[in-house]
Amino acid sequence: MISINNLTVEFGGFTLFKEVSFLVNSRDRIGLVGKNGAGKSTLLKIFAGLQGATKGNVSIPSEIKIGYLPQQMNHFDGRTVMEEALTAFEEVLGLEKEIAKINAEIAERTDYESEDYMKLINRLSDKNDRYHMMGGENVDAEAEKTLLGLGFLRSDFTRQTNEFSGGWRMRIELAKILLRRPDVFLLDEPTNHLDIESIQWLEDFLKVYPGAVVLVSHDRAFLDNITNRTVEISVGKIYDYKVPYSEYVVLHAERREQQMKAYINQQKMIKDTEDFIERFRYKATKAVQVQSRIKQLEKLDRIEVDEEDMSKLNLKFPPAPRSGDLVCEAKNLSKAYGDHLVLSELEFVIERGEKLAFVGKNGEGKSTLVKVLMGELEYSGICKLGHNVKIGYFAQNQAQLLDENKTVFDTIDDVAVGDVRTKIRDILGAFMFRGEEVDKKVKVLSGGERSRLAMIRLLLEPVNLLVLDEPTNHLDMKSKDVLKEALSQFEGTVIVVSHDREFLDGLASKVYEFGNKKIKEHLGGIYDFLRAKRMETLQELEVKKAIVQEKVEEAPSENKLNYLERKELSKKITKMERNVAKAEENIAKFEEQIAEMEDLLSNPEKMQDQSLFTKYEDAKKDLENEMMSWEEFNEQLEELIAERGE
């Protein structure tokens, strides 16, 4: 479908790609990976025809339609959300106008027997056939379904696009691309402005889409759920792995280890050769050997290894004064903007040490509640912080509060205390500020760089309640790992507003779901919540099928598990799920071994091999034992799930 042949891209003497070649096939799901600046976004632009190459070529058949979603885009005003979405159907809308024009002309004609009139009728028939073939009568329904899937409300359809934030306008552009049904999707960080439900909808859409997908994302779960192939860009070269991201990580580590060994060996050989040349350069008797070694070095294909910090950075929060056991309590908390009610009569308690995830569709009040907690908004009802609570707050606008005239290093040096001051460069490196970048002034940093710098400042402040609003949007995989590890070890209380499931997994122990002006508490981690949500959806469908007229509210069980018991039960379930998965792996391994030995034993000569026959019998016993273990694990898992009340 798309063919890249010996592609070279250079920028002012710097080579981004060096003679790379690979193919994008019709059903590929490719994740482009590599460190920042490796060329991922550039490669998408080349695919989209927006940027050329220095050498080589990109071959795309003329009939192939490309759908490209960049990180930054231009927006056009003057249309409603629905009108803008419908521009995706340019040909259909053009046909509608032509059909209307022909119908109007026919209505005025009276020469029913003329040749021109018959030509007009034939044109109308052709246009109508084309219109129906393209599903013209369904475009409104398709646009509505896509906009709803991406989080818009029906009431949003008639609003002007310029009333929405940049993130929501990006969703409109994504909707248009999805509606055009291209042969190849090129998506550059498509999840940055989506909530969890919208991401899941997009995943479900892309999984069954018949075209190809090439995407750049720092969302591990999204990459794993979508991709079946990972293309790594490293020091101008392409490394093609026919596996999803998680499997790529393992294979990448193995390749890098081999690459490092070869690199070290080559460097030793180069040094030995250079030492020989230097030692015998002026000896006439060694002139031939010296010239031979010089030519040898000139012809050498030197191994390049991408810089990678393999050290483990343990970033810990500075000690903070201990807060009271009750961190925050709300009663009858409501918040409205004029006549628009966002939060209605909320009641909740946050205890010291809890790590909470705020999730829900955009516009449901997550950031509003955060601002109420921060004391930035007026509200009705009660919302009080506990004794000695000190808040550290991160939001996107935190980046604008940095001193523009200070350097990156000085910005962090101002807040660092104790031993941390000796590790400032390591900390900055973990968040993608390396080498000379630490001496840059804040005023020359991009929006993403400023956000990362603001995050580092927050990590070094002595607070006991951290409130983080979408903290991972501008972080790469390693930076997210560093942040997640630091938050996991943080002894205070954490509230995270995020759509990044992989980041929240293992971090949040309770989920607050925002919707319909209320919040609903879910005990357990983010994947417990997602599993429960899917079950709830199925239950709702069953209720609709049964045409139940009244919703019966379930009485709270007297034996309802408390939080600590449920948390411990979730751990047991997770452990048992791992046991089941491991047993299934072993069963597959034994079945494969048995099949191989059966093939061998089908050979009359091998039938006499007693040792092979013994191994065959042993493998069958191992399989039988593993099957018994698998059944026991499954029974125990079902009992645990039943105990949790699912």
UniProtKB/TrEMBL annotation:
The keyword ATP-binding applies. PROSITE patterns: ABC_TRANSPORTER_1 (PS00211), ABC_TRANSPORTER_2 (PS50893). Gene3D superfamilies: P-loop containing nucleotide triphosphate hydrolases, Valyl-tRNA synthetase, C-terminal domain. SMART domains: AAA. SUPFAM superfamilies: P-loop containing nucleoside triphosphate hydrolases. Transmembrane segments: none annotated. InterPro entries: AAA+_ATPase, ABC_tran_Xtn, ABC_transporter-like_ATP-bd, ABC_transporter-like_CS, ABCF_ATPase, P-loop_NTPase, Val-tRNA_synth_C_sf. Residues 566-640 form a coiled coil. Keywords: ATP-binding, Coiled coil, Nucleotide-binding, Repeat, Transferase. This is Probable ATP-binding protein YbiT. It comes from Marinifilum breve.
